Amino acid sequence: MIGVREVGGDVRGVVIDRTNPRNMLSNPNWRQKLDLITSRFEEHRTRVEIAVRSKEIYLRSDGFYAFRNTEFPEEIDAMRMSIVLLFNELLKEAGIRTY
Fold it and tell me: Helix 28-53 and helix 72-93: axis angle, to 10°?
């Protein structure tokens, strides 16, 4: 079972406690892929955090995001797509149907 536990939050979102469910996977290949997926999530989170701090991305008063770095949206989309593809590959190997 893979899960997260809510540990707090604010009006913008929920902070999620980090868990280590990877050790519960019996297949070492799945564990390795899940480690890679976790690593890519961390890279994605760090990259967005850097973008916010450096003002490459900001939240407008109307609630929409705006980008000062025109390459940033494609960069984060590519990062997200690599995570999705890896996760779908892991699910396929585990025999879990994906859409």
Answer: 160
